[in-house]
């Protein structure tokens, strides 16, 4: 008998059996009595055996030798030494499979828990979506939903307010404002000190009594405001008004009243808020902080109590007396009066803080009126804001210190102006209480006047909103080389004059927030005609000019022309053409009745040149030595101020040297135009754009 089997092989130093299943051919030669040869029988190796032991083979007609072989094989396989290695390996494989199954089960279960990374990422994205939704909702100012919420809150507070309305004492210090018959009264008496215990719903502060600290009261107010807990707000009000005296909270009981007033307004309980504000004014006026007063004003505005907000503003955030800055500057102190000097500094800081919060509060009131379609009330608030400008500048406050949301005010005014153009206030003016005849040509100009009165902000976001509101459409109309080529004088005009390469086209593009309205070239003298640009004309005017199509519609109320005049000096043109330009400009400045502003551009790096002096002399001869009412406004603009600083930016937009200023003033006086205002600008850093727009308004109001 010959047996051919798959022998084990050595893999990586370890003696292992072959993993592949081969074919084992066993050839059995059985010699019987007749010495006959039995045909060999091929048998396939069993693949279902885990330890690769050979299965039993059968051979027809021969049993004794094969049975003997199988019996020996069974004895060998049943021995302990042969079964040790396969059993350990099978157990090891089974353990690996069990670990994989447990890992998979744990992974599947973790996906449903909050600790899985996918779940954490999903919660993070959901939170961002919610924050974005809340932010967008606040920016949209859905006052209908707010009014509905306030209406529901009023229904909830009716029962409690009915009990409180019976008591009209402003002090309420020793009066029980919580009647015994109130079903919500769960307070219990305290036999130790005669006080009462005020139970709360809070887990952190379960009750308020005579032993409660300031931190307990603040925590309870914050929790009640966040959760709209009206019960806790009532109990806190009873505690502060009845149980404690003026000395509570180290004398800052008034700060707790301000916090409670804001929380009461948050749930629309105006009665408690009014009593807190009154008690704060009477007992704690000396310790009132402007920050707290501003918070109360915003809370009253949120509940649409505009009249009460103005009362708090004028009483607690009033303007300082005239000349307060000079008074404090003139004070001198001896060495023994250091405390008086510190007191003066404290008063100055207090007044500055009051000015900051008053400006912010007035801005909030104006913004609220703009977004509630009440432009008249909003413009009254803007006027008060404008009146503060000189005082704010005297106090030395900057735009960063004030933090007035000018971009929001501009967008609110633009929204009202858009509704005005749509005819919202053309009818039913008596019902709305609005009189558009008293408004400016564009409500945004009212906000612009207040912006100019305050320290410059120089923010791109604000100016972009301003340009989008004041320059809605622009179009090149024509290029005139004589008075016959000028368009019809049916609106105001502003003219930009200056020598070549002074930056006229760049300034026009900067003011209109357009990149290529006026052609900009590095070669001087490219502008060789009077270029007319229409601002806020009728829609599709460009199609009418280019193709001759008849376009319906009319120009807006604040439409005007921007005229870019040819430059003098470096322009490479014949002397005859220069003389034609000069004659045309003389006739234009003399006879054009709709001309409202003449902007004379001078390079801030070198000052006025000989050509600039000629222009000043010509303007002075036409307008006169004094600014006449029936003539155009003459304004000097110093351009390219950013070139005078090393690294120009929004914080360092540009400057003009003292020598250039002196040279400019002397030239202006020599040519009888010393009355003209001077504006420093830069097309790169956008310096002076608000002040220039202040004069552009004169043309828009024509």
Automatic annotation (TrEMBL):
SUPFAM superfamilies: P-loop containing nucleoside triphosphate hydrolases. Residues 77-88 have a biased composition (Low complexity). The keyword GTP-binding applies. GO terms for biological process: cell division. Its cofactor is Mg(2+). Residues 71-120 are annotated as: Disordered. CDD domains: YihA_EngB. It comes from the Eukaryota. The keyword GTP-binding applies. Pfam families: MMR_HSR1. Residues 490-702 form the EngB-type G domain. Residues 104-116 have a biased composition (Polar residues). One of its GO terms (molecular function) is GTP binding. Keywords: Cell cycle, Cell division, GTP-binding, Magnesium, Metal-binding, Nucleotide-binding, Septation. HAMAP family: GTPase_EngB. Belongs to the TRAFAC class TrmE-Era-EngA-EngB-Septin-like GTPase superfamily. EngB GTPase family. This is EngB-type G domain-containing protein. It comes from Stephanodiscus triporus.
